[in-house]
Design a protein that fits this description.
- The chain has five helices and ten strands; from the N terminus they run βαβααβαβββββββα.
- By secondary structure, it is an alpha/beta fold.
- It has a single domain, classed as Metallo-dependent phosphatases (Purple Acid Phosphatase, chain A, domain 2, 4-Layer Sandwich).
- It is about 25% helix and about 25% strand.
């Protein structure tokens, strides 16, 4: 597919969801606004820590529930198994891949993402970035944003309740702008994602009951 007329690529990233699905309908509204404002092609990623041990939903689904909602939100990829406190067990990860279309990328791997005819390389940890296409690295040891004019595109850690946005010139592949966008408390929830969250929560309760576990939400 040709990419004529595309002057920029925008990378949008979240992290540290910690199983808080109630945040996602409002976050989706913010993401839609930023994608509409980007003008070019935008890639949306979650960098990890989507679950937390003290959240019943994460325990009941072995970490799958938040990623299922991210898939419904149109994320281009989610990273798992990095410097996070709650890695998803391998059997749960394999089952998740049968349920969603969003790529789930284990930490330490390289991958490719394609949207609207543009293919980018992605590398995490010590993985080698493919040299035959533009790409970016993820380094969650720092929350620093790349500087304007940088030729190396890096996504760092993203604090809870924020969306990182990095704009990159295309096809020059140099950073033109980078900023953190806070999720305002008065951001209206998207009704479709609100319904998706309610569905996933109901399914998690039912699954927990069938497994003989506790389906309560008090931790």
């Amino acid at each position: 597919m040709a990419t004529e007329g595309i002057a920029s690529v925008t990378l949008l990233a979240t992290a540290h969801l910690h199983g808080d699905l109630a945040r996602l309908p409002r976050l989706f509204t913010l993401i839609q606004r930023e994608r509409a404002a980007a003008g070019g092609v935008s890639f949306l990623l979650d960098l990890g820590d989507s679950c937390a041990l003290d959240v019943w939903l994460c325990r009941a689904t072995q970490g799958r529930a938040p990623l299922m909602v991210l898939d419904a939100m149109g994320y281009d990829a989610a990273l798992v198994g990095g410097p996070e406190a709650v890695p998803i067990p391998v059997p749960s990860l394999l089952r998740l891949r049968e349920l969603i279309t969003m790529p789930v990328i284990p930490w330490g791997r390289a991958a490719s993402l394609t949207r609207k005819g543009i293919t980018l390389g992605l590398a995490t940890g010590e993985a080698v970035l493919p040299g035959d296409r533009p790409g970016f690295r993820v380094d969650r040891s720092s929350d620093a944003l790349p500087e304007s004019g940088a030729a190396t595109v890096m996504l760092g850690d993203v604090p809870p309740g924020h969306l990182a946005r990095v704009d990159v010139a295309w096809p020059d592949w140099t950073v033109t702008a980078a900023r953190l966008v806070a999720l305002a408390p008065d951001t209206p929830p998207d009704p479709t994602i609100l319904a998706t969250v309610e569905f996933v929560q109901d399914e998690a309760r039912d699954y927990a009951r069938r497994q003989g576990g506790v389906s309560g939400e008090s931790g």
